[in-house]
Amino acid sequence: MTQLVLEQALNGLQFGLMLFLLAAGLTLVFGIMDCINLAHGSLYMVGAYLVAAAAQAADSFWIGLGAGVAGTALLGLLLELSLFRQLYKRDHLSQVLATFALILIANEAVRMIWGAQPVLLNPPEALAGPVEFALFGGDFFYPAYRLVIIAFGLAVAGLLYLLVAKSRVGMWVRAGASNREMTEALGINVRGLFTAVFVFGAALCALAGGLLGPLLAVQVGMGESVLIVAFVVIIIGGIGSIRGALVGSLIVGTVDTLGRALLPTLLRAILPADVASTLGPALASILIYLLMAGILFFKPQGLFPARA
To answer: Which of 38, 181, 210, 222 has its CA 20 to 30 A from that of 119?
Structure first.
């Protein structure tokens, strides 16, 4: 039982860090640039497809990952220059309608290019096996690839913190979001900074999609379900806060993974088996939304509001 809990806790950490890669770009665009981008999950889907296609062409996962991230960043740049730059001036309803249309267009475009069937993306051969640890008086095995994903997530989280909270560029972005006219009067190109933030968010989407591709199916519509969870993360953490996105991602990832793995088993100890087998998965699927409601009851602005 201890090893099961430890394994699921590591799975939750890995899932939470991948959620952070998605939520970080979303919270920057939503919280700092005040733009609701429902197509953020579509960039995650397109990134995963580009990584899979490039990996198959180059016969190398890492080359595919780099090419997919670069391709999605370029796509993000084109979208920002052609569409989103116009949406910043519009109200939230216009932003929701335009980006929802973008979701439909992206799904159909992907279906026309790669087909309706899921695309295979294999992990690097060197990371296909498990890693052995000596814990709790026994051997504990954990997939090496998942450990690499955890390392990637922690490295990106540290880099983002330094970039947003400690660097001059991060200070310019936060100043531009607070008072655009004054920041531009000081000679800062706020429009260029916002474009860079959007492109960086698109690249993070592709990185998450490419890393999760070998664990999940790379298929049409994969971005919609994870987008809802990413919105839960930034609402719990506080809109516009990178620190909140990280903490919210880890909380949601851990609670969701442990809930789905352990809740049905725990319910069988106190309820009849047929009731527990029905109630357990249902409760596990809504656990993060109950968590969000509980946190917002005490902290309506989220755990770490950006303008607190």
So the answer is: 38
